[in-house]
Automatic annotation (TrEMBL):
Organism in which the protein naturally occurs: Paenibacillus mendelii
Region span, Disordered: 26-47
Pfam families named in the record: Cupredoxin_1 (PF13473)
Superkingdom: Bacteria
EfeO-type cupredoxin-like domain: residues covered: 15-118
Keywords for this protein: Signal
Signal sequence bounds: 1-19
InterPro entries xrefs: Cupredoxin (IPR008972), EfeO_Cupredoxin (IPR028096)
SUPFAM superfamilies hit by this protein: Cupredoxins
The protein's name in its UniProt record: Cupredoxin domain-containing protein
Length: 132
């Protein structure tokens, strides 16, 4: 009986640690982390929406195209597993289920990757955000 109670306590502690590791990075209104890099984070309505779907070591597309200077709502959906994305050149991060409205003022290709260690194929989880 004592071993079962100890096991249940350890399991509960493990679940809480895993839950605390999730990303909850929701930026609003031109956050300092995005200042000066061609990205504006706003709470305003977007004219476009891009849903990035992540599953076992891949994204649903290799490239996602958006228009320069127009607000876009980025959303990350984890179809299987737990994933996050990071667009390093833009200081944009999303956790599973997160959305963020951003405006990218500089045309180009911006590579993003899964920023949560999700298994053996984690390093292959790379795609591009193409801004035209």
């Amino acid at each position: 009986m004592m071993k079962k109670a100890l096991f249940m306590c350890m399991l509960a502690a493990f679940v809480m640690v895993i839950a605390a590791c999730g990303s909850n990075n929701k930026n609003n209104d031109k956050s300092p982390e995005n200042a000066g890099n061609g990205v504006e984070t706003t709470g305003s309505a977007s004219s476009q929406e891009v849903v990035i779907k992540a599953s076992s070591w891949k994204f649903d597309k290799q490239e996602y195209t958006i228009k320069k200077g127009e607000p876009v709502k980025l959303t990350l959906e984890s179809v299987s597993g737990v994933h996050g994305i990071e667009v390093s050149d833009l200081d944009v991060k999303l956790g599973s289920g997160d959305s963020k409205v951003i405006t990218i003022n500089d045309a180009g290709e911006y590579e993003f990757h899964c920023n949560i260690q999700c298994g053996t194929g984690h390093k292959k989880m790379v795609a591009k955000l193409v801004v035209e």
